[in-house]
Amino acid sequence: MKAVHFGAGNIGRGFVGLLLHDAGYEVVFADVNAELIDALNRAPSYQVHEVGDGGGVRTVTGYRAINSASSENELIAEIQTADVVTTAVGPNILRFVAPVIARALALRDSGLPPLVVMACENAINATDLLKTEVQSSVGPDEWEAIAPRAIFANTAVDRIVPGQDPAAGIDVTVETFYEWVIESPPFGDARPEIPGATFVDALGPYIERKLFTVNTGHATAAYYGFAAGIDRISDALAAPRVADAVRAVLEETSALLVAKHGIDPDVQRVYREKILGRFANPHLPDTVQRVGRQPLRKLSRNERFIGPAAELAERGIPRTALLDAVGTALRFDVADDEQSVEMRSLLVELDAPAFVERVTGLAPGHPLFSELVAVVSTSRA
Ligand SMILES: NC(=O)C1=CN([C@@H]2O[C@H](COP(=O)(O)OP(=O)(O)OC[C@H]3O[C@@H](n4cnc5c(N)ncnc54)[C@H](O)[C@@H]3O)[C@@H](O)[C@H]2O)C=CC1
Ligand SMILES: O=P(O)(O)OC[C@H]1O[C@](O)(CO)[C@@H](O)[C@@H]1O
């Protein structure tokens, strides 16, 4: 079995690549980072250091790596005969990998089983987005021809993989916890064999619970930690002001998850507490800069703050803590984060309603709109 994985970064090496390797796949990493590709190809194996309770060291062997920027034809040939394609490149990058997948599907022998395509990104229905990008990279006739050659399945991925020490080379440090949830309906009776993954009939509740608990809470810790001048996420969680803010947003998103998906409040409370423990893991060298990265993506319409806050507003349920967290996110100011720099410019260039429309994608008639305008106005005062 062969899997081609786009993005040999933190999640690629420390999570998806590891689980595919453990499932018996030969993993072919594809990345635009030439140095990383060369380093992977030079080494016969790399290690994944799982830190925290029950930690240990795992070894990944039998992989190959291809520079997707300079060796596109080689990559297309690999995908043509692969069983699985996964991505962990960031939701905004999916449009760049889509044309390569389309070209490989066009060349794929129609006698082969369909190629399983799964985007492993922090976004709701990222694989649907990838599928749309694959479709729009070809004409309607070609899409009709290649669509039966692939199965697109949405997934939710959860494992904290912090920025890595450059001295570690290609080895990766990760938390011990992981969860990879995959929707099963697209597969019918022919699911891929991935023992580390969980297949579910309906992914919606899982991905929303993950994004609106793990990611909302983590990003809140990052933005409050940054505002308090704290560097490490575990230190941020130790500051009462930050921990209180995180707990408060998670109370609000939990109220939504309970109301919307019928999740048992006690089960959600246990899930929340476990996550707070994961954030506070002192063995994980994670920073507020990494976890807060790309604030414009995180403040967009269906993401971890505006997504739940908008639905809470629509249902008339409190969302004060989420609004406060948005206000704190607006203070994120990291010179080498392009979106942080752009956010700072937009805050100067646009008036508050225009900023809210542009960044959050909400229209003026939405019940959350005027509340966000007030938050932005305060942050500019
Ligand atoms: N790090 C984490 O704890 C988690 C990350 N995620 C998600 O996983 C995705 C990747 O995140 P990380 O691994 O942390 O980022 P990362 O920055 O460590 O890795 C991304 C990799 O993608 C590569 N890349 C960029 N453009 C590419 C292209 N056109 N073709 C091929 N490769 C390309 C980069 O060179 C980099 O090696 C994101 O969507 C993130 O939200 C999800 C759960 C946890
Ligand atoms: O690119 P993003 O969305 O910041 O992804 C990283 C996030 O995902 C997580 O791993 C949670 O699964 C956290 O480490 C972090 O908050």
From TrEMBL:
GO biological process, one term: mannitol catabolic process
Domain Mannitol dehydrogenase C-terminal: 203-343
EC number assigned by the record: 1.1.1.17
Alphabetized GO MF terms: mannitol-1-phosphate 5-dehydrogenase activity
Residues involved in NAD(+) binding: A3, V4, H5, F6, G7, A8, G9, N10, I11, G12, R13, G14
Keywords, alphabetical: NAD, Oxidoreductase
GO cellular component: cytosol
InterPro entries in UniProt: 6-PGluconate_DH-like_C_sf, 6PGD_dom2, Mannitol_1_phos_5_DH, Mannitol_DH, Mannitol_DH_C, Mannitol_DH_N, NAD(P)-bd_dom_sf
Record's catalysed reaction(s): D-mannitol 1-phosphate + NAD(+) = beta-D-fructose 6-phosphate + NADH + H(+)
Domain Mannitol dehydrogenase N-terminal: 1-195
A Pfam family per the record: Mannitol_dh_C
Superkingdom, taxonomy of origin: Bacteria
HAMAP family recorded: Mannitol_dehydrog
PANTHER family linked to this entry: ALTRONATE OXIDOREDUCTASE-RELATED, MANNITOL-1-PHOSPHATE 5-DEHYDROGENASE
Similarity comment: family membership: Belongs to the mannitol dehydrogenase family.
Protein name (database record): Mannitol-1-phosphate 5-dehydrogenase
Gene name linked to the record: mtlD
